[in-house]
């Protein structure tokens, strides 16, 4: 069943009509795009359609970004603005802020979505100051109303509540979006590239060395994730989950207490203060379903929970629930999958 899930874009009916475009900032490291840019492009497409306006990508960089611009047209953009900063293939805050602000002031978009990456979060905040608007950070879902106002929802109060924020009096609405929440949907389009040459390239920064990180986040990219919680009782028992992951070709992730106790690497923590995952299948083993954990798995297509406690909140947030002991259910599951 998992393999049958298909990603297609269904164009929504417009709820309002706005004049400005919806922009998505394309985050990159010179010649390589940050995947979160494509994730939020599909959500940007939906918001643009709801507001009956165009979707544009906006990118700052030198000519190395041309293949990325080409690729953007696979993800539903009507056009791409390229603020060309000659000699600056990589992100440098003051140069990129000036370049982006220039195109914003000239073309006046309705809203700009930024990937929640380290560089883009910084760029969004310095650009918001430069163009004299506000910034809504770390959002995970969006809607619009019949007046064309965008509603951005984000976890708040340490993840205990969700807040919905509007910015009706300032344009553009600037928003950073958490990675791993949306799914990149291929929507091939054709459109124009508008190049803006940036003249003022003065900078206070001096780059001494640039090192590309090779590390990929296997958890964020996995199709099947086996989540392990305190119900596993000891670090040695995690091999049970690893066995299930191995037969299903999945990856093991953990709840925060397990990462805090050093039972599993911190980069495998799922949730608000860990990684947001979007697998096709998430199997939660001995996880209670605290809100800070749920926020990280809300994008999972199917959730199966195995927990001994019928009252565990995870059962309110799963597609299939097994009330049972993981030490009995999981070996049986491994056996069944192996025999198939
Ligand atoms: P527990 O809540 O202790 O649940 C263990 C579960 O195992 C229970 O439901 C129990 O019934 C079940 N169980 C026990 N034995 C068995 C068995 N033999 N078979 C089956 N089931 C069994 N948590 C995260 O996960 N990620 C985060 O990013 C995160 N960020 C946080 C940020 C903040 C600011 C705060 C305050 C908290 C955060 N937390 C986060 C912690 C969160 O509130 C919970 O404490 C945590 O998720 C609980 O982990 P758990 O489900 O593994 O443990």
UniProtKB/TrEMBL annotation:
Domain Electron transfer flavoprotein alpha/beta-subunit N-terminal, residue spans: 22-205
A GO term for molecular function: electron transfer activity
Protein name: Electron transfer flavoprotein
Organism of provenance: Sulfurisphaera tokodaii (strain DSM 16993 / JCM 10545 / NBRC 100140 / 7) (Sulfolobus tokodaii)
């Amino acid at each position: 069943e998992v393999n049958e899930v298909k990603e297609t874009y269904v164009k929504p009916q417009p709820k309002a009509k706005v004049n400005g475009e919806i922009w998505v900032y394309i985050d990159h490291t010179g010649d390589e795009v940050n995947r979160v840019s494509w994730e939020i492009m599909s959500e940007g497409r939906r918001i643009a359609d709801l507001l009956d306006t165009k979707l544009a990508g906006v990118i700052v960089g030198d000519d190395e970004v041309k293949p990325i611009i080409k690729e953007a047209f696979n993800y539903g953009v009507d056009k791409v603005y390229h603020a060309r900063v000659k000699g600056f293939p990589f992100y440098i805050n003051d140069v990129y802020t000036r370049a982006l602000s220039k195109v914003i002031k000239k073309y006046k978009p309705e809203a700009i979505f930024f990937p929640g990456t380290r560089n883009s979060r910084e760029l969004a905040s310095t650009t918001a100051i430069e163009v004299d608007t506000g910034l809504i950070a770390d959002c995970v879902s969006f809607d619009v109303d019949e007046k064309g106002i965008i509603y951005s929802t984000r976890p708040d109060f340490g993840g205990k509540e969700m807040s919905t924020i509007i910015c009706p009096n300032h344009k553009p609405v600037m928003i950073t979006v958490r990675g791993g929440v949306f799914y990149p949907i291929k929507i091939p389009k054709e459109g124009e590239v508008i190049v803006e040459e940036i003249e003022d390239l003065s900078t206070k920064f001096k780059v001494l060395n640039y090192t590309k990180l090779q590390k990929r986040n296997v958890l964020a990219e996995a199709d099947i994730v086996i989540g392990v919680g305190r119900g596993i009782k000891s670090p040695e028992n995690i091999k049970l989950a690893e066995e299930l992951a191995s037969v299903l070709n999945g990856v093991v992730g953990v709840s925060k207490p397990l990462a805090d106790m050093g039972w599993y690497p911190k980069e495998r923590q799922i949730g608000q203060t860990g990684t947001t995952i979007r697998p096709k299948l998430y199997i939660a083993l001995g996880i209670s379903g605290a809100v800070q954990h749920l926020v990280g798995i809300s994008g999972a297509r199917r959730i199966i929970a195995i927990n001994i406690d019928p009252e565990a909140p995870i059962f309110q947030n799963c597609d299939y629930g097994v009330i049972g002991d993981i030490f009995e259910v999981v070996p049986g599951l491994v056996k069944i999958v192996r025999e198939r």
